[in-house]
Structure formats: structure tokens, C-alpha cells
Write a structure and sequence with these properties.
Blueprint lengths: L14 H8 L4 H23 L2
Length: 51
């Protein structure tokens, strides 16, 4: 599965368009990816602080 991580609206402003129009994801697939990324973001931030 493709997973895109974004913290701010600007870098991910076209994420939904890319998922749906370029990669052919359905609405439910795009929503599932967004939820997965939202859930993973706190752990990613935590790990990045340790670098």
C-alpha cells in the first residue's frame, strides 16, 4: 500500500488528487490511506525528534 505522510496542508494539498486521479484509488481507499497516515504521524514526529 502507498503511504504518504504530510504534516501541513500545503505539501499535501494535491495528495487526494494524486491518489484518485493518477493512482486510481477509490474514495474509500484514499480515505483509508489518509486515516492511516494521520494515525502514524505522532509516532513519526517522535522518531524524527530522536535523530
Amino acid at each position: 500500500m502507498i503511504s504518504l505522510l504530510v504534516d501541513k496542508a500545503d505539501p499535501g494539498q494535491h495528495t487526494e488528487t494524486v491518489l484518485k486521479e493518477l493512482l486510481g484509488c477509490s474514495e474509500s481507499q484514499a480515505e483509508a490511506i489518509k486515516k492511516q497516515n494521520d494515525a502514524a504521524l505522532p509516532e513519526l514526529k517522535k522518531r524524527l525528534k530522536k535523530l
